[in-house]
Amino acid sequence: MQYRADIDGLRAIAVLSVVFYHFFEPHGFNGYMGVDIFFVISGFLITSIIQKDLNRNSFSLLNFYEKRIRRILPALTVVILFCAGVGMWLFFPTEGIPFSKSIIATSLFSSNMLFWSEAGYFDSSAFLKPLLHTWSLAIEEQFYILFPLFLMVLACCKGSYILIRNVIACLILASLLADIVVLKFVNQQSAFYFMPLRAWELLCGGLLVYLPTLQNQKLSSQMSWLGAFLLIAGFFIPIDTQDFPGYNALLPVIGTCLIIYSGIALHSLRVHRCLSHGFATFFGKISYSLYLWHWPFVVFATYYWITEISDFYKFSLISLCIFISYLSWRYVEQPFRHKSFIKSQRTILAAGISFIIVCIALGGGIYAFYKNTTHETTAPALYSQYEHYVYTAQDTGVSQAIKPFGIESPIDPTIAIWGDSHASAVFPALIPHTLKANTRGVLLTPKDDFLVPLDMCAAIPDKTDCLNDVTNKHLNYILETPSITHVILAQRWNAWLDGWQKENGVEAANTLREQSLKRLIDVLNQAGKNVILLMQVPEIKNIPINMNISTIDATLVKTGRAIDLRPQLSHNVKYSQEIRTIFKSLQSNTQVKVVWPEDLLCLDGKLCAYKDDQGRILYEDDDHLSPDGALFISPLFQDIF
Predict the structure, then answer these.
(1) Which residues contact 593 (CB under 8 A, 6 or more apart)?
(2) CA-CA distances (angstroms) from residue 533 to 59, 418, 472, 478?
(3) What is the side-by-side order of every strand in the sheet holding 440-444?
(4) CA distance linking residue 211 with residue 341, whole number of Å
(5) CA–CA separation, 174 vs 391, rounded Å?
(6) Which helix (H) or strand (E) holds 521?
(7) What would the pLDDT profile of 91-116 be if each residue is shown by its tens digit?
(8) HEC profile for 90-151?
(9) Are 381 and 627 in contact (CB under 8 A)?
(10) How far apart are alpha carbons 190 and 113 in whole angstroms?
(11) d(Cα 541, Cα 565) in Å, to the nearest integer?
(12) Other C-beta atoms lying within 10 Å of the C-beta of residue 521
């Protein structure tokens, strides 16, 4: 088909928005929508090529897949090899094993399903997956396995453009509605990663091929401006990433469709002239390589630098990505696409099969390497001697089963630790004491990690049943178990009632926090329970959220870099000042004991330990203790038993 410079301009907008979003994560900018622009462009161009060949009775599946191999595999092969080399240097087994699986999945164009099974695209753990961005390639190639066959069947049935248009429109509607339903009633990961649920975006591009050509210049101009407006709106309208794609993807999809459609016959419109500028077309031409190269740079830079990367280094990395992408386009993409290198179709098809075999072998080799590799840089874990004193959770009718720990005899518990994931991280601190006291304890954590206290009860004091279902059942279990004499409340207190605070203000939220906690303490005290408030641990700042601290520490040793990960007590005191004030007030006015982990973690009053004298890592991630870290602060609970 005839070259359209404005489509390269759209590609430039798509890739630069994705690159900017991934490097800077700017608040209020939905740069990830660039992928939706790519989907529409791909659907339009590939459908145009297929239909043109079908009209000439010259379409061949072998020719089609040869072109796809020439377009996709050369640059992708280079990027996979680069990622394998750097990953083998940087990664440890916790990251290397999942990475090896992603190499195999990428080569089979099924990485979208692998990443769907692991975590969401917008989860913080995504920043440790160098091939995460290949999910979109997988969706496209899965789509192009079926779509050419669909068009061939319609062509064999002598289907008119009207029939094809109507069928595609029905498929678009079905796919979009399914995407919306799955997003609302199932989960965001499925709506994001499943090809049938994203196919409507590619089909929208394909539908344009079968619409009557627009010749009215005024209408075309209005349509192009509306398309530009929708694209801009899509990038900047407030959208929760958990509500994407679904109907929120309509803005970039419709906007891209309007711009492409309005320019099919008329290329001189102002919007299209802007998109056809040399600067835009340059980035459009290298967009595929730039898309492939930028994300591994983000991941490896995050992994290597550990701390927050300065804007200067980010722009430097982007410049390097652009330079490498140009080289990739010029010396890898172009020779293969234009058959200046390997002209034989048979050789290209064999190369495609070889690519899959080599990548499977490479991924399998990396998997085997990491399976037989350990990176013991610390003393043996202390927790290993206590693991068998944690027992299978028992279903008690509470929202989530309760996990007992302590002596082996199944006696009634005398202590309960209740809270969010921080309670789960800290409870090993209690195991040595339960063994010494010849007793048992229980861990209670809601399955959705909901925070403990009586939420809105203090705001509506006349209502006695204002607890959410999960908290209510947990509270009833504690109150109805007379053997429980001590209750430890543990969670990330700063995150508690954040949503309510945004709507009602800091002062009102702090009042509610204190009243709610006081009421909970009073209820427990009246039932004869001793209440202990456990302050959250000092947090490690300026590292990727949820990145494993033991891996970070080992990476620093491996790369010879010196970064002080120790939390600063003054920073954490300032960060948690409001909840500290509430705790001190409650300690003065109620029967409650407050335990401060910093009393053992921050002995010099300035910096807090993240590993002990033997090199054992005390933190799991930036704000959770490891099992050994929990045992490190175990002496703080000695007076309870």
Answers:
(1) 530, 531, 532, 533, 587
(2) 72, 10, 19, 16
(3) 403-406, 440-444, 415-419, 486-490, 530-534, 592-595
(4) 37
(5) 48
(6) helix 506-526
(7) 877 788 899 999 999 999 999 999 99
(8) HCCHHHHHHHHHHHHHHHCCCHHHHHHHHCCCCCHHHHHCCCHHHHHHHHHHHHHHHHHHHH
(9) yes
(10) 9
(11) 8
(12) 21
How many Å apart are CA 625 and CA 537, to the nearest integer? 8
Structure tokens at 20: 């900017």
Other beta carbons within 10 angstroms of residue 155's beta carbon come to 17
Look up residue 95 and give its two tokens. Answer: 């990251």
**Residue 407 near residue 438, CB atoms below 8 Å:** yes
What is the radius of gyration, based on Cα positions, of the chain?
A: 29
91: left (phi over 0), alpha (psi -120 to 50) or beta: beta
Beta pairing class for 440-444 and 403-406: antiparallel
Tens digits of per-residue pLDDT, 450-465? 454 444 444 444 444 4
**Structure token digits, residue 457:** 């009860």
Beta carbons within 8 Å of 112's beta carbon, 6+ residues apart: 135, 136, 138, 139, 142, 193, 194, 195
In contact, 15 and 318? CB cutoff 8 Å:
no
pLDDT, tens digit (0-9, with 9 covering 90-100), for 390-436: 877 665 555 456 789 999 888 889 999 998 889 999 999 999 999 99
Do the strands 415-419 and 486-490 form a parallel or antiparallel pair, or are they unpaired? parallel
The token pair that represents 319 in the structure block: 């410049």
